[in-house]
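Risk mitigation, structural track. In case the binding assays with flavin-adenine dinucleotide fail to produce interpretable data, a predicted complex structure has been prepared as a fallback.
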Amino acid sequence: MMKKVLIIGSGIGGSGFGALLINTRNYEIELFEKNSLIGGRFSTYEKEGWKLDVGCHLIANCENGPIGWILNEIGRANDVKWSYARNPTPKFFYIDKFLLFPRELIRLNISSKDLKNLLSLMKDLNSFSETELQKLEEEQVDMRTFLSNYTKNMKVLSLFSFFAGLYFVIPDFLTPASEWIRCQRDILNFKTSGYPIGGTISIPKAFCKFIEDNGGKVHTNTEVKEIVIENGKAIGIRTDQGIIKGDLIISNVGVKTTVQTLIAKELVDTEYFKKINSYEYSLATIQTKIALDRKITDEKMIMFVGQEISQDNWDKKAFEEKNFMKLLQDVDFHPILFIPIVSNLDPSLVPEGKQLIIAGGGCPTPSQGFNNEDHKKMWEGAIIRSLEKIFPSIRNHILWTETTSPEDINNFVNKDGTVIGIGQTTEQVGINRPSHEIPGIKNAFCCGADTGRTGIGGELAANSAIELYKKILKNN
Ligand SMILES: Cc1cc2nc3c(=O)[nH]c(=O)nc-3n(C[C@H](O)[C@H](O)[C@H](O)COP(=O)(O)OP(=O)(O)OC[C@H]3O[C@@H](n4cnc5c(N)ncnc54)[C@H](O)[C@@H]3O)c2cc1C
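Fallback model:
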């Protein structure tokens, strides 16, 4: 008799896991998504003929990463076409001009000895053995401390901290050196960072299509209200239509949300509940999507650093004091932005001859005080003033803008609107990451970025799906 698996959420973790499991032909899959669009943080919507992603814009390793692995495993590698973020190579725009990384670091007054050290570190990332990386992880060595062995130049260290923000959305002093090394070396080795043609939704769409092509069901606009548990065993889910029974329940909605809202509190182990509540989320970003009447740049990706950052100002203040709002009073532009020019990666996203620039940077979450349209306007204004430093005439070409705030992300996919969910900090990786299992409750599992062991954003969620898939196959 085929086992029935109910999946809550169609993010990369939920839809990827469903596709993998249905491919075994031993399971029936039914997936429930609360939104009208599938994909969660990888969703894409349309506005006046333009395709806009909800959150994500860059996949770290495309076909060579875990998303590619899933597509390959289910025999659908050709269902997603990739466009790579190279040629031209991604660049820093540092204060007032472009800076090639790491070659032009010399402009930041780094000594030639330190520069040599850093260049050889970047070349030697492959030489770290898994044992060495695990030791760094166990000793909770952070990226800043690790890189300080190569240079003490604050400006250079601050520039490296951009990658902690970009990959893990936490400051470098909380980023595990081991996780940075693992992810950075894959990116350098594969050189296949890129974008899925048609928008990021193309990936969960391919997974959901595979589920449906194989007899599974994908329900949109269907919010799950509860995981139904009897005698310590998950036996189904409850939606507005009633209870649906299943043999395995997989929650892709985030570990905290699962435990705090989908399971009756008295059924959750008290120590586990406390532990889950103590996990810290990553930071959030605000993203302004700028529609332009014509192409103003051939760049595909720009990393903007608008002021001399030092380790002790922007990121530290933002994270430790949790006081992002105040930061915009110090400068009238957003000092750190990631700027993918997505229509140069995929021209089919926009009407012919037009350009779509997206600029995203750190910003408070709703629970840190970001919660109204005025805040949104203030942050959008700061982002556009930053873009003017790179493209002085940009305002003359703006057709419209649309800003997605952490509040919007929270309304769409919860987790306080943060980018990752549970942050990959030195204290929250490896054996300290939440597990798929929910102690004391059989047949219910969590799957998604929160339970991913390694990887960047969507690839972290995909890794969680692969690991859970392997576990379920082994145990059933
Ligand atoms: C602004 C932003 C930018 C990002 N940029 C990148 C990037 O460039 N590269 C990258 O790799 N990653 C990026 N990420 C991170 C990446 O998108 C996430 O790590 C990843 O997509 C998370 O996938 P997930 O499977 O954990 O679930 P999610 O994407 O969080 O999906 C969870 C799903 O569950 C659904 N759901 C929730 N509650 C219920 C319920 N009760 N019933 C039914 N359904 C429910 C939600 O609607 C959602 O569809 C970004 C994220 C954001 C927010």
